[in-house]
Amino acid sequence: MKILIADDNADLVESLTLGFRLQWAECQVVAASTGTAAVALFQAEHPDVILLDIGLPEMDGFEVLKRIREESDVPILMLTVRSEELDKVKALELGADDYIMKPFSSLELLARIKAVLRRAEATMPAPATPAFVSSTLTIHYDSRKVIVHGQPVKLTPTEYKLLCALARYPDQVVSREALLARVWGSEYRGETDFLKVYIRRLRTKIEENQAKPQIILTERGMGYRLVRNS
């Protein structure tokens, strides 16, 4: 397990490094104190997970996140002292897997990292499951390929897991709470921003017109429904 910590707070980096080494004997930590160094270390070290501070010098965390997402789906957790809701949404829109506010407990951070890694590694449903086929959408579970209107669509692991969670119950409303628990984990049941952002990202990739979705419909006050014969 290799973790890249990108934060200009030397005391925090030292504390996190010690904590990880105590929790995971095999854990290797690499650290960067600027955005430029973070991108360079990512490219050189190929970490398994990244802890990325928004307020980095030279290049802020949003720009670092954007550059990494152009190359990789590596799990990324944003660390920040900012409390603005727009920052959280922006980070998720750019491809962050999670967002944690400073100060945080080591146990909370560890739980979040493990949840992100579980999502990245998870395959759902099992490869032997027959493909999901509708008039516009096909999901090949054996190869994890998604086809929309005859064209392959690239999804991140979390986007794919969310789509599969909806496809498991075609033409049925799946509650927000159920989707959050199934895709992110039971500890995320209240994180509705995560779900809104990822539904929007999915629609951008699979809907012809995301302003007028035909595949993933919103059922106000209830949840979302994937239409089999859209």
Helix content: 40-55%
**Unreliable parts:** none
CATH class of the largest domain: Alpha Beta
Reported for the largest beta sheet, the result is: 5 strands, parallel
What is the beta-strand fraction?
15-25%
C-alpha-based Rg, rounded: 18 Å
DSSP, total strands: 12
CATH superfamily of the largest domain: Response regulator
Strand order of the largest sheet: 2-1-3-4-5
Shape: elongated
- Domain count: 2
- What's the CATH topology name of the largest domain? Rossmann fold
Q: Helix-strand pattern, N to C? A: EHEHEHEHEHEEEEHEHHEE
SS-based class:
alpha/beta
Structure overview:
By secondary structure, this protein is α/β, with parallel strands linked by helices. It folds into two domains: 2-121, Response regulator (Rossmann fold, 3-Layer(aba) Sandwich); 132-226, Winged helix-like DNA-binding domain superfamily/Winged helix DNA-binding domain (Arc Repressor Mutant, subunit A), CATH 1.10.10.10. The chain is built from eight helices and twelve strands. It has a five-stranded parallel β-sheet, with helices on both faces. Strands 6-7-8-9 form a four-stranded antiparallel β-sheet, with helices on one face. Helix 2 packs parallel to helix 3 (61-69), helix 4 (85-93) runs parallel beside helix 8 (192-206) and helix 6 crosses helix 8.
